[in-house]
Specification:
This protein is α+β, with helices and mostly antiparallel strands and about 80 residues long. Helix content is about 15%, strand content about 15%. It has two helices and four strands, in the order ββββαα. A hairpin with a 2-residue loop joins strand 3 and strand 4.
Length: about 80
């Protein structure tokens, strides 16, 4: 939930738009709700970091399984 100037982002809960608790609007205030098109939330994580994909080619094959071992010295699984 983000508010800046006269623009605020909330969520829908049980069919009601819920704004952050610090937002106080008097009864009768007219508001405009803008619903974004699906998939227009900006670039994906992969798009943002595509220049780094494949960069680390010398990592252990079991890194995902044994991340705690490589980071903290825990026993391997």
């Amino acid at each position: 939930m983000v508010c800046a100037g006269m623009s605020c982002t909330g969520t829908v809960k049980d069919g009601v738009v819920v704004l952050p608790p610090e937002v106080r609007l008097p009864d009768g205030t007219h508001v405009v709700v803008s619903i974004p098109e699906p998939g227009t939330g900006g670039p994906t994580f992969a798009d943002r970091y595509k220049e780094f994909i494949g960069m680390a080619d010398d990592l252990p094959a079991d890194l995902a399984l044994n991340l705690d071992h490589y980071l903290h010295g825990h026993p391997k699984k």
